[in-house]
Amino acid sequence: MLSFKFLLGIIALKLIGCFAYYWFYFIYSPHGVKGDSSDTLMAAEMMYKAFSHNKADFFKMLFGLHSDLITDPLYEPYFKHIDDWGESDSTSEFFLNDNRTSIRLHAFIMLFSKGAYATHALVLLIISFIGQLAFYKTFKSYFEGKEKLLAILIFLTPSVLFWSSGILKEPLAIALLGLFIYCFHQLFVHKLRKAKYLIALLFCSLFFIILKPYILVIIICPLVLFALSKHLRVKRIAVFYIVCMTIIYSAGVLALKCVFHKDVINTIVVRQNDFISLSKGGIFFVNEHNYLRLEYNTQAGYDMIDSAKNVCQLHPHISLMYWDLNNLRDTIFVSDNKDTSLYTRLLVCKPAGSGINMERLQYSFASFAKLLPVSFFNVLCRPFFLDAHSAAELVASIENLLFFLFFVLCIVFRAKTPVNKNLLVFCISIVLLSFLLIGITTTVEGAIVRYKIPFIPFLLMIPLLYLDKSVLLKNKLIRWLLA
Predict the structure, then answer these.
(1) Who is most buried in 96, 131, 205, 325, counting CB within 10 A?
(2) Is the C-alpha dihedral spanning 206, 208, 210, 213 positive or negative?
(3) In the chain, what are the domain boundaries?
(4) Tens digits of per-residue pLDDT, 71-80?
């Protein structure tokens, strides 16, 4: 059991992490770039302002009692002015927009904080700490003699400490992940059939669906297989996981496509192509038929017809790429434009400094097979010094180097006793699923660093399983750090 002094030290370091995040994005960052935290607070404040003059509108927005149509009474006074509110996209065919959940939460917190950043940061710190503590309590029994090192890996990994300290979705995702896994283990691994665990599990599932549903999709199958392997005493655990996950995920994709006419593969292809376009920057337009992109430096490629509504007309003979809204799989490149119809300008986006040069994913098995190994490598190893373009990415590079050294240390000083193969394959499964999904859909290093945060503890538990705990007692430096 972790001592009160140890937990107090963790909380103190998390508070330092909150200050570091605030300093980096609100004081140090050049050109006034404040990131998602600032955008979320501004959007929440727009909702919160409704509370003072129209409480009915506030609670309708808070609980989602409205439509997404521009004819909705709440659109003109509120949603039109909230950039992060978002409209339906390809992913919305399966999942709700995750920005809205975070905005609603912070609008609710503003009832007590009155917009003070420190209050919002403190609430998220407490929420993430509860989830991390639940995660630790779930797995500590598998790391006898290495409990403190496990706690350090869960709470104090630099990227986890930093990105769980901002007004972002990551602290909420970490909290939900820890609580969900803890309640699942209590119910189905330890067989403690109590109503509180079932209610908490359903609560976490609901919030996963409206915040980061892909995390639930990634962890639920390995969790079920972990419980089954334990109770059925499966001998060939790796084979059991591979066969079952292949069948379950393949059946799920086919069922969604054939029964519900929802194409998961197409959604992944579209999301990856969108990320590549955004990482390269550009000017994005849409009308009732097409979604198109001009190069970022092609400012003279269109005329603004109506600045209030961002209605534009393209110039003839320019180069562009576009997608038919009824078939977003295929990217069509045009070198001599002849389309002079009207478009709505959606976004003007500068090229990302940390974009990864990747091929565009195609709707084919060969394309996926070619890009999956590269995608996994990008999430596991990048950024790594030479491709670091900022101070934050340099820190991430140092962290990746430390991860590598930790793997080497654990293998060199590995225990002679066999490891828990069920837990080992469970962790490997989650790392593979999450890293492949993140890598295949994300082509910006900064985004990759953030998206993999909830899964880093699973990655680091893999080498920790092999580490000989007597090494912790022999090394004076390690003893001092743990003390």
Answers:
(1) 131
(2) negative
(3) 281-349
(4) 888 888 888 7
